[in-house]
Every structure is written in structure tokens, then in C-alpha cells.
Structure to design on (342 residues):
């Protein structure tokens, strides 16, 4: 049986660099007060020996775990089938990795999981949390506030209590919706319907408001509630055609909803865009470029939103306290991407 390879120690690094063990500890753990030539010698010795810091010992010195929790308030079935979440997680992961932090993914399958997540966050396992896809009656914000961890939210806060000081990243959902509906009006469409997302989420509520900003008082039958899924888009489109056979345009609350709507239109023999024009929201390329015809949609930079959420949180952690005078919310612009459906 071969002998286990021993790990390089702080003492070995100190001997290689020709400095004290305390100097190596300060450099490795991000402490101040070490002259730059000595810092370079220590870093070179660390690289040559392949020294890996003991995270538990480092945490005692820095009071940091270099780990961030990502909490998604949706069932697993939704998270692993909607490419929106994959893009947001990719953006978050890239930013955390670039700053040598670990991503800890926490899923909430149902309300019974919320207390478990709050206990984990309060237990000192992570430095902060990134939370998105919240619903208006969700208890998570209050539980997270009680856990006392720095938090950045994905999406405009809309829950009751505590939202005033929340730091968040979102896109211009309302303005993007207005652009989509104006484009349909400009095409000469007069019976423009909207298939909403779940209206207990601020993104869906804002997109509905953008539709109403342009359409004003319109036939209430032209608005059908849905849930951001292809199956929901199918159900809503079928309901729309039954209610209003003369519908000539649809603004769908996201690309997956538009995908379901296009399936039903094809089954019912409606030509797109000749009979019914369709616009989605998100510009999730695996969906938008593979629909038939290719989907006109509102682009939001989902990956950049994830990166920005992580960057805001890490900036707060590095400063040791929330930035004073900084805006609580960052809202990124959207762009209408014209393809073949409208």
C-alpha cells in the first residue's frame, strides 16, 4: 500500500519563501501589513509547493466562508426545465468563480423547506445569499432577514414588509412589454391579447401593466392568466381562441409561454404571423431561435443579471457593510428582437 502524500504546510511555505509562519498566514488569509516583495515571495512558494489553505482555519481569521447561497423559490421541476434559471445560474457562477467563491444551491420544493433554508443561512455556513423567483406571499424574505445574512434579490421586490431597503437586480419588464405591444400596434393589429405569467410575481405583473399602458381599456377577454410554462401557454391560447376567435396578435409573458401558444395556433390552422402575430419575452435562445417560425421577443440579459447580483453582494461583503447612498435597485434595459413571428 502506497504512503499518503503529505500536504504542504504553512511552515513549509514559510521555509521556501524565507519568511515567518505569521507572514505566510497573513498573505494566505488576505491580511494587511505585508510588504509587496514578501507577498510575491509567499505567493511564489505557495504555487511551487501546491499549498492549499485550510478553509476552516482561514474562516477563523477572515470571518468569511467564501461561499454564497443561491435560493430559488421554485419547484425543482421548474428549475431544471426552464432555461431562464440555467442562464441566471451561469451568470452567478461565473462571477463567484472569478472572485474565488463557492456557489451553494438551495432549492425550496415547498413551504416546508423555507424554515430549513432560513436555519441554514442563519447557521454561519455562507457569507450571503442571492434569492430570486419570489412570489408575493412568500415568507422567505422575512425569514432571510431574520437570519441576518446580506442578501441581493433577483426581481423587483413586491412582498409586504421589508421591501423598502432590499437590494435587487431586475430588467425593465414594463418598458419591454410596452415596446412589444407598440410593435404589434404598428403592424396594424387591433385585437391584441396578452397571456400573463403568474401574477403573484412582480415580473409578470409589470409586463401586464406594460400591455395595459399601450392598450388602455380593452376587452378583458383578451387577457388570460398563465404560469410561464409551455403547457400554460397552450391552455391560455386555446382559451383565447375560444373566447375571441378574431384575435390577431398575442404578447406572451415569456418565451416558453409563446412556445405553447405557437403549438396551439399551428394545431388550429392559424398562420403566424399572417393570421396571428406573436411576441415573447426573455430571448432565451434555445427557445426563441428554434420555434417555427423564429420568435420575435423582448431580450433581457439574463446572464448579466446573475453576474450583477453576485457582484453587488460580493462588493457589500468586501466592504464589510452595505454601501451607503447606493441605489437599492438596478434595472437593466430590454431590447425588442425582431424575427419571423411579428
Amino acid at each position: 500500500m502506497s504512503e499518503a502524500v503529505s500536504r504542504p504546510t504553512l511552515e513549509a511555505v514559510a521555509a521556501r519563501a524565507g519568511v515567518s509562519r505569521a507572514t505566510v498566514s497573513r498573505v494566505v488569509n488576505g491580511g494587511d501589513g505585508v510588504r509587496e516583495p514578501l507577498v510575491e515571495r509567499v505567493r511564489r512558494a505557495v504555487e511551487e509547493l501546491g499549498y492549499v489553505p485550510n478553509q476552516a482555519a482561514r474562516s477563523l481569521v477572515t470571518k468569511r466562508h467564501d461561499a454564497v447561497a443561491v435560493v430559488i423559490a421554485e419547484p425543482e421541476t421548474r428549475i431544471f426545465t426552464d432555461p431562464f434559471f440555467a442562464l441566471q445560474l451561469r451568470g452567478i457562477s461565473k462571477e463567484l468563480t472569478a472572485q474565488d467563491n463557492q456557489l451553494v444551491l438551495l432549492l425550496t420544493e415547498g413551504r416546508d423547506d423555507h424554515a430549513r433554508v432560513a436555519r441554514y443561512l442563519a447557521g454561519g455556513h455562507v457569507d450571503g445569499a442571492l434569492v430570486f423567483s419570489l412570489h408575493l406571499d412568500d415568507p422567505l424574505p422575512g425569514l432571510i432577514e431574520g437570519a441576518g445574512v446580506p442578501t441581493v434579490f433577483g426581481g423587483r421586490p413586491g412582498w409586504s414588509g421589508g421591501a423598502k431597503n432590499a437590494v435587487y437586480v431586475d430588467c425593465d419588464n414594463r418598458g419591454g412589454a410596452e415596446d412589444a405591444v407598440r410593435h404589434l400596434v404598428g403592424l396594424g393589429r387591433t385585437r391584441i391579447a396578452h397571456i400573463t405569467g403568474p401574477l403573484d410575481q412582480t415580473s409578470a405583473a409589470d409586463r401586464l401593466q406594460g400591455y395595459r399602458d399601450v392598450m388602455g381599456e380593452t376587452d378583458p377577454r383578451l387577457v388570460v392568466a398563465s404560469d410561464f410554462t409551455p403547457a400554460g401557454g397552450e391552455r391560455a391560447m386555446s382559451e383565447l381562441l375560444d373566447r375571441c376567435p378574431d384575435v390577431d396578435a398575442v404578447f406572451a409573458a415569456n418565451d416558453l409561454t409563446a412556445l405553447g401558444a405557437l403549438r396551439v395556433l399551428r394545431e388550429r390552422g392559424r398562420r403566424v404571423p399572417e393570421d396571428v402575430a406573436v411576441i415573447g419575452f426573455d430571448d432565451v435562445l434555445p427557445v426563441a431561435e428554434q420555434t417555427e417560425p423564429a420568435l420575435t421577443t423582448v431580450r433581457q440579459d439574463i446572464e448579466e443579471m446573475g453576474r450583477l447580483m453576485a457582484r453587488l453582494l460580493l462588493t457589500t461583503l468586501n466592504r464589510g457593510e452595505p454601501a451607503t447612498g447606493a441605489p437599492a435597485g438596478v434595472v437593466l434595459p430590454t431590447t425588442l428582437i425582431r424575427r419571423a413571428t411579428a
Notes: The chain has a mean pLDDT of 87. The radius of gyration is 25 Å.
